[in-house]
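Cross-posted from the bioinformatics board.
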Amino acid sequence: MAGNDKDALLNFLLRMGDSALILGHRVSEWCGHSPVLEEDIALANTALDLIGQTQLWLEYAAEIQGEGNSADDLAFLRDAWDFRNFLLAELPNGDFGRTMMRQFLFDAWASILLPRLAQSSDPRVAEIAAKAAKEAAYHLERSADTVVGLGDGTAESHDRMQAALDYLYPYVGEMFLSDEGDAALAAAGVAPDPASLRNEYDALLKRVMNEATLELPDTRFTHSGGRDGRMHTEHLGHLLCSMQWLQRAYPGSTW
Amino acid sequence: MAGNDKDALLNFLLRMGDSALILGHRVSEWCGHSPVLEEDIALANTALDLIGQTQLWLEYAAEIQGEGNSADDLAFLRDAWDFRNFLLAELPNGDFGRTMMRQFLFDAWASILLPRLAQSSDPRVAEIAAKAAKEAAYHLERSADTVVGLGDGTAESHDRMQAALDYLYPYVGEMFLSDEGDAALAAAGVAPDPASLRNEYDALLKRVMNEATLELPDTRFTHSGGRDGRMHTEHLGHLLCSMQWLQRAYPGSTW
């Protein structure tokens, strides 16, 4: 594989793996703290699915990188600036409503992207995506239902969901940015250009927000910097501090 | 030095150093977050004094331990179960009032103990304590003033200070527990038996709480486990996670 193509594929795999990892860790923070038992178990399951996807994406990333790292090394021994997750994934949980809104905004993206990736010219990408797509479809069903239920619920739940949407929406656009590497991957049939998914995403959001009686912010401004490791929020470092503690304190520990 | 005496002295030095370190770290968490600039600087100064004391206590502890560790190694490379700080020091900051109440409860203890330690038969202990005693006297002046000002302030500040005292008081007794090692150190003139300081402490608390219009809880129950490393609160691990991050992620780093 030529150097540029390898870099583009590695960046793509890290973006997929890191976004699943960081969001999965965030969601796992709810374990034992959810408002009702059913939601607690559902969130823990979502987190587990995401960590499972992480394992597959980062395993492949480590192979492509070719430096002898394992998926665990990539997850637990990189510092903030080497992570390629979307900023959306690292934002703090906030209340249950905000967590579910973030989940919906991510699930909607994943549920559109993953079925296309399942047709990738790269058989390994296709295989991982096919498995992840089933989980994403299920996650979307749950998170969309919750967004509608809380958005079109009590006055307080409505206000909280609107506040969550207003807070999170300026991070949505980063999932649809693309660069030269993405163009090369698209040309090679490895992955669709992220920007090409936006219309379908917008239509899905419009439909769900309409049903949830929530108003989509009228702006295309987006924070960015996560997907290319240019700049993360202050929250990522604190998250890594907890997430990586064990491997940092006891290097090389295994189960 | 006989084995038992060495253990007793080491435990004592770790208790002093770890309590100063952990409280110092907690207080440093206020940096940039205090209600007014003057308090922000004052708290940062208090934290610096405590970290300075830590350096001296743990340096001596490392020498007595004789395993080639530095004070930094003891601070940054031990895990929770090896810490010997009082539980009081590791409790979360809560609001500004609770932080200042915790500071007062600690300063009152330090301001009684340290002048006596300055007369220690161990010249190194005497030297460290003489320096620390001056700082503790100043800390006590500030924290006692604040406890009185907020306790005898508005209805809200009074209620918050009473709540802080009610929350923290069950951790006070640990500073006055003693065991065989403490008895040996007292017999050798190294350090007074902790229990022997309680009457003076109680009188000081009574005086200040009276002026602050706060009511001392009518109980001698105390949480314990920190001073002997038997059991820390869940909060210590999270604190270490932040405090030790740099040395854990970049082992052997120096300024």
